[in-house]
Amino acid sequence: NAGVTQTPKFQVLKTGQSMTLQCAQDMNHNSMYWYRQDPGMGLRLIYYSASEGTTDKGEVPNGYNVSRLNKREFSLRLESAAPSQTSVYFCASSFYSGRTDEQYFGPGTRLTVT
Amino acid sequence: GNSVTQMEGPVTLSEEAFLTINCTYTATGYPSLFWYVQYPGEGLQLLLKATKADDKGSNKGFEATYRKETTSFHLEKGSVQVSDSAVYFCALSGRGDQGGKLIFGQGTELSVKP
Q1: What secondary structure letter does DSSP report for B53?
Q2: Are strands A4-7 and A104-105 parallel, antiparallel or unpaired?
Q3: I need a surface site. Which of A69, A74, B21, B65 has the fewest CB within 10 A?
Q4: Which residues of B touch A99 (CB under 8 A)?
């Protein structure tokens, strides 16, 4: 059981470049989430997917797009990276049945935009 | 809207000292409350949770009691170890939130010295 996996672990982009962060879970969870972590600000929700085929905006969605490819995979795309998007990105998943339960987190992707 | 406030860190303690990390929240209704821990270079993992008022969550010697009258969920441990050095996040999820979204506090860094 790998849990939640994320690729890549590290990435450096130049302003204006695009990239996709990949996330996969093998726990048969229905809900998946993308967060960003910045010093002193905790984790902030970017987008989430309550179930396969649905996605919704979180607190800080601007500059990002997501795709729930299937039940296992949830990707985050930066179309035109900006220095303000320098952050650590975490993917998480959970089994949601109307009542919030534990979220399982991946190891994170450290992104630097120059 | 819902929010979580944690005491600011970093907190530095000697081994075997008593730990308290304060967490207060603002939410409508009856949220579920969580403490997550992040060890260096890793993703977050659930430490404990409480789903209704007066519930006590506990794990690995850590405890927190859901106090609705003071809207608090303070984390305590009687005797910390060097291995407890990590960042601790308080989080809540409101009842009925679609997809089990979590709202995190800003995190409190704990450093335990031998």
Answers
A1: T
A2: unpaired
A3: A69
A4: 32, 51, 95, 100
